[in-house]
Amino acid sequence: MTYSKLKEMLIVVGEALLIAGITVVAVLPVSCKITEQGIKIVGGDYTPPVLNNFMVADEQTVILDFSEKVQVAGFVVAKVIDDQFDSQEHSSTIDLSPAIERASGVYGAVSAYCSCDEERVIFELEEQMETGCGYELYTQVKDSVGNTLTIVIPFKGFNSHVPEVMITEVQTESVSSQNKAEKEAGTYRNEYVELLILKSGNLSGLELCSGYDGEEKKYVFPAIEVSAGEIIVVHMRNRGNGCISEEGDDLTLATSSYTSPQVRDLWTDIESTTLGNKTDIIIVRNSANRRLLDVVMFRASTIQAWTKTMIDYSQLVDETEIYLSGDIENAFVADSLTQTKTLHRTNAATYRQQILNGLILDYPIPSSPDFWTIADPSPGTL
Fold first, then answer.
1. Which residue of 116, 206, 253, 333 could cross-link 221, Cys pair, CB 3.0 to 4.6 Å?
2. Could you tell me if 300 and 233 are in contact, meaning their C-beta atoms sit under 8 angstroms apart?
3. Alpha carbon 304 to its chain's center
4. Is the peptide bond between 29 and the residue preceding it cis, with omega within 30 degrees of 0?
5. What is the pTM (predicted TM-score) of this model?
6. 150: number of CA atoms within 13 Å, CB side?
């Protein structure tokens, strides 16, 4: 084995040991002693701090709230660089791996400083974030007895131009069979959520989430400027041909079923079933401050209580003025929903016409079971 090959192997092994060491220190802050019978815990506080909340507060401020008073042992804020996301990536040369370089601030670092106020840590960037740009915060905090928590948090640059959005239609089931035209084109009719833009803005940082699916299947909107009166259809399953997200000005790119050249079609990367067929809480929220922009709640008549995940979402509804509360009694009874029937907001077309006429609406728009009905699918037509 040549000297250079041996050097390369030692670097790779060293990086692996560094990552492993950080992980072990982060998850095993335990004091112990060796006895004849083995390892024995001798007591003490071995619980690391818990991150309770993360918020991008403005163009230059990121806030972390913890379960107890903490101090920051070190941190780096860095811009996400394309093709350098994999934290497990290692180097086959004498250079550090991209992940370790980014975490150490070798490149992509953004100048910042931090301050601690009891359980809250505030990071102030010395330059304004770019709307829609990806960032990562690497930090380690410790409590009063030295227990540490090491975390990496990805986030988007602050969006100061958040649009007003309303959910107007939901297709909760896909059609497994294809008609003749769909077979020829290789397309399918899949689940979707239709949205109406009530006030112009940028979609960056907005999330579409389903209580049935949980956070794992949430859709994160790209940084797209949208106009009041515009209709957006978010297709919740990526299956078949023509599933092309229209993030630019050309709205003719998508050719799958339930698409239209008059509508902006966007796709998730999910290939499996999504949304609850007859029971769900679907929300649109701003990831920066967790504020709900809109929500629709529906249930089968036989369902008398939300699931655990849906309870979490219903509590978010409690914090808004959209529904009277997130209680299941305020959900639309959706027994007649099928593969060929969708949930429609009955006053959506009226709101759109008001917006196009220049009327500024009070926001958020209130909702109740009285504002919803079930009808044939008609994405993009309200």
1. 206
2. no
3. 28
4. no
5. 0.79
6. 13
Q: What distance in Å separates the CA atoms of residue 303 and residue 377, rounded to the nearest whole number?
A: 24
| Contact predicate 193/209, CB 8 Å | no
Return d(Cα 63, Cα 181) in angstroms, integer. 52
Give me 364's structure tokens.
């958020």
- Which tokens belong to 114? 């931090």
**Which residue type, as a one-letter code, is found at position 84?**
Q
274-313 burial, b at 16+ Cβ within 10 Å, e below that, comes to bbbebbbbbbbbbbbeeebbbbbbbbeeebeebbebbeeb
Tokens read off for 74 = 């070190």
**Tokens 């220049």 found at:** 358
pLDDT level of residue 227 (50, 70, 90 thresholds): very high
How far is it, in rounded angstroms, from Cα 27 to Cα 22?
A: 9
Listing DSSP states for 88-136 in one string gives T---SSSSPPHHHHHHHTSSSEE-EEEEEETTEEEEEESSPPPTT-EEE
Residues 288/316, Cβ–Cβ less than 8 Å: no
Q: Given pLDDT bands bounded at 50, 70 and 90, which one contains residue 204?
A: very high
Give the residue carrying structure tokens 């679907």. Answer: 282
What is the C-alpha to C-alpha distance for residues 265 and 253, in angstroms, rounded to an integer?
9
Query: How high is the pLDDT of residue 46?
Result: 75
- Give tens-digit pLDDT for 135-184: 989 999 999 999 999 998 989 999 999 999 999 999 999 999 999 999 99
User: Two tokens at 256?
Assistant: 């799958």
Name the phi and psi angles at 206, rounded to 5.
-85, 150
Over residues 25-61, the pLDDT tens digits come to 444 444 444 455 556 555 566 789 999 999 999 999 9
Q: How far apart are the first and last CA of the chain?
A: 69
